Amino acid sequence: MKRIILLPALCLLGSTVISQNDIDAMRYSQNYFGGSSRSKAMAGSFGALGADGTCMSINPAGIGLYRKGEMNISFGLKFNRVDATHNGTGDQGFKASVPFDGLTLVGAWDAANNKENHHALGLSCNQIANYNSTTNISGMSKNKSITQDILATTGNSSIKNLDASFAGLAYEVYLIDTINSKYYSLVNTKYNVLQSKIIETTGRNNEWCFNYAYGYIDKLYLGASLGISSINFNYSSNYTEQDVNDSIKRTNYTYPVWYYPADKVGGFKDLSYTETFKTSGSGYSLKLGAIYRAADFIRIGASFNSPTIYNLTDTYVYYMSATYDEGGSFTAQNPPNPGGKFNYKITTPMKFTGSVAFIYQKLAALNIDYDIISYNQASLQSSTASVFSGVNETIRKKYSQSSNLRVGAEVNVKPIFLRMGYAMYGSPFGDTFKGDGVSYLFIGGIGAGKGKTYIDLSFTKRISTEGYYMYNPNYVDKTEIKNLGTTIALTIGSKF
């Protein structure tokens, strides 16, 4: 009767769920600029060049170089492929989406007392992150099982104090049990099982920027931008283990040979663990920037992006099931419908950007941006101060300072513009442009206009690799992940 009695109690435990961790902090700290197709084609490299709506998210002084008003809207078509290799077995996931990339509205006018001084007001909406992705992982274990991780979380806890979303559910479906107050697993890791995981993510992070910039004698440009972000992130994962060789019998459990569960459960067949959560919320940040025209052909830019403070809500539910050769199937859920909720904050690290642009008359331009970000400064907070102390300590130890490099070029070949860009987004783990988490972007684009109306098109290829663990790295082999993203973006705009 333990399972029937215990489950309601379990549902009351575990107010802090595993979805709030260091991975969440990194997800919202790493952004890739959306915005116009022109900016995309130039890798979002506009820190010193200016005169593009994307500047509001990079260097708000950039709109000070506008002399006319402008409005545009951008859409994209994104394809994301994920190649995963686990213990020599490869698998692939694919997802397509049609994101809204950006909106720009800029007004510019001369100062009343000096036409060499200028004002500009801007409003933009840039998609700084797109979360649409599917990852499929599958491969035979090497004497490993998620039950090892489950057992590690039990410690010396009594049954009523088990983690309700993990070990508590495993207890409910007989994957673990107690003998003389000691926990045992019904999955014997001497025998390999087929480990699989499917991860589905959707959503976006859109940033609205409200920008003011001032140009002094066409020499010095200063700007400030208030950024308001809107996050919608959906996550679903299903982890399974299967005894495909039917090798785990009653007689080879890790239980003592004399013991069998009272319910006569025996002969492990498979288990399934599903996590689903939805994150929604908003954040705000302040951006300050300056651009100095050192000569007609050189501009130097610098900007500061304050930490973004996100107020987030997670809605979550967890399921676990197990099937046995003897004893049937068992399922448990935490919490009961409609699911649990948890409110918390994430503070992302500040960012500094240095830029330089080279301009050759009105025929060609080259811009270089270099970001410095200390990812170990990210943090999570809740109304209970101690809830995230362990997570924040993990962030400080696991992550480090890193950098991003963006290079963009534009050539005016009348009546069209040819553009290309390259970017490297550094690893948050310390080896800036080496190892896990590094992303490379290769971009090209074209633009044309007639009168005040123009149209721009860009093509982006993004490549990144990382090591991924389906559960606690201490108890599972690493999966090699390769992300291959392709985006086609279109912008239609007009100047006035």
Description:
The chain is mainly beta and 496 residues long. It has one domain: Porin, CATH 2.40.160. It contains seven helices and 22 strands. The protein has helices spanning 2-10, 22-29, 37-41, 55-58, 146-154, 167-172, 389-398, and strands at residues 70-86, 89-97, 100-110, 118-130, 133-140, 176-179, 182-185, 194-216, 220-242, 266-295, 298-305, 309-326, 328-334, 340-347, 351-360, 364-374, 379-381, 401-413, 416-425, 439-450, 453-468, 479-495. It is elongated and about 90 Å long. It starts with a helix and ends with a strand.
Topology:
Elements: H1 2-10, H2 22-29, H3 37-41, H4 55-58, E1 70-86, E2 89-97, E3 100-110, E4 118-130, E5 133-140, H5 146-154, H6 167-172, E6 176-179, E7 182-185, E8 194-216, E9 220-242, E10 266-295, E11 298-305, E12 309-326, E13 328-334, E14 340-347, E15 351-360, E16 364-374, E17 379-381, H7 389-398, E18 401-413, E19 416-425, E20 439-450, E21 453-468, E22 479-495
Antiparallel strand pairs: 1-2, 1-3, 1-22, 3-4, 4-8, 5-8, 6-7, 8-9, 9-10, 10-11, 10-12, 11-15, 12-13, 12-14, 14-17, 15-16, 16-18, 18-19, 19-20, 20-21, 21-22
Residue share in helix? 10-25%
Average predicted confidence as pLDDT: 89
Shape: elongated
CATH secondary-structure class:
Mainly Beta
Distance between the termini: 75 Å
* CATH fold title: Porin
Q: How many strand units?
A: 22
Structural class: mainly beta
Q: What is the CATH architecture term?
A: Beta Barrel
Rg (C-alpha, Å): 27 Å
In N-to-C order, the SSE pattern is HHHHEEEEEHHEEEEEEEEEEEEHEEEEE
Tell me the CATH superfamily.
Answer: Outer membrane protein transport protein (OMPP1/FadL/TodX)
Give the number of domains: 1
* Arrangement of strands in the largest sheet: 1-3-4-8-9-10-11-15-16-18-19-20-21-22
Question: How large is the share of residues in beta strands?
Answer: over 45%
